[in-house]
Specification:
By secondary structure, this protein is mainly alpha-helical. The protein is built from eleven helices and no strands. Helices cover 81% and strands 0% of the residues.
């Protein structure tokens, strides 16, 4: 069996296990949709109704992707506690392939959270952008969510199930709030807006906001997000090796 086939089989297994988790399906996908409906039908900020519907669509789709990526770490922590990781170590899968397989699984679970929010914006608020923008927006948010998937996985390898769950929830809220995914950073105090521009949450949302405005993502934003991916990826590799020494 080839290495690619091994990883593919592992990803298929993890996907089936994840999709059987009805809590993830309901809350992981349903929460950002509910927030989008509330945010765009109660108040609406200082922008026009249409502009706010588009801005919030990107922000809440990004938030859903961020949440789904981090949530993948909770499953890792639960598997570690149940002894599943010890079983994986006696399979032909290498440590790198296990981490990559987990990252691919987490990334695939991000897609439904993105797509459902975009469909809600289209159907509930009549959001209309160019066909290519829908495609580019979905792809950029999907690929751009990888740093958060790696962070969630790293926490899962490093921490206990209970601590992982709490840590990922708090991290999720902080990254979304400070990153301007719920409210524009133009409403922030000057010092907080300056800090927000260096956070992965803001640069992630910026990928989508640039797309719906008809612009390419900024090189600075891509560079900042890539740097966070390296940091979180390194953390995941370290945490996996450390979990092996504890096993």
């Amino acid at each position: 069996m080839s290495q690619a086939t091994l990883v593919s089989s592992y990803v298929n297994l993890e996907l089936r296990r994840t999709l059987r988790d009805t809590g993830f399906v309901i809350f992981g996908i349903g929460t950002p949709v509910l927030m989008y409906i509330l945010f765009t039908n109660v108040g609406g900020g200082s922008e026009s109704t249409r502009e706010w519907a588009v801005t919030a669509m990107v922000g809440l789709a990004a938030y859903g992707a961020l949440s789904a990526g981090l949530t993948s770490g909770t499953a890792v922590a639960e598997d570690k506690a149940a002894g599943w990781l010890r079983q994986l170590r006696i399979t032909p899968l290498s440590p790198a392939q296990v981490v990559v397989g987990r990252a691919l699984t987490g990334s695939l679970m991000v897609l439904p959270a993105i797509v459902v929010v975009l469909l809600t914006a289209m159907l509930a608020n009549g959001v209309s952008i160019e066909p290519y923008q829908w495609v580019v927006l979905t792809l950029l948010l999907w690929v751009g969510s990888l740093p958060f998937t790696m962070l969630g996985i790293a926490n899962g390898y490093q921490l206990s199930p209970q601590t992982t769950n709490v840590t990922n929830i708090v991290t999720n809220l902080l990254l979304a709030l400070v990153g301007g995914l719920w409210f524009p950073i133009s409403e922030f105090p000057g010092w907080l807006a300056a800090v927000a521009k260096w956070t992965p949450g803001y640069r992630f949302g910026e990928l989508g906001w640039a797309t719906v405005d008809g612009n390419a993502p900024s090189l600075t934003g891509v560079a900042v997000l890539a740097a966070w991916l390296l940091v979180f990826g390194g953390y995941a590799a370290y945490a996996y090796r450390r979990s092996g020494r504890k096993a």
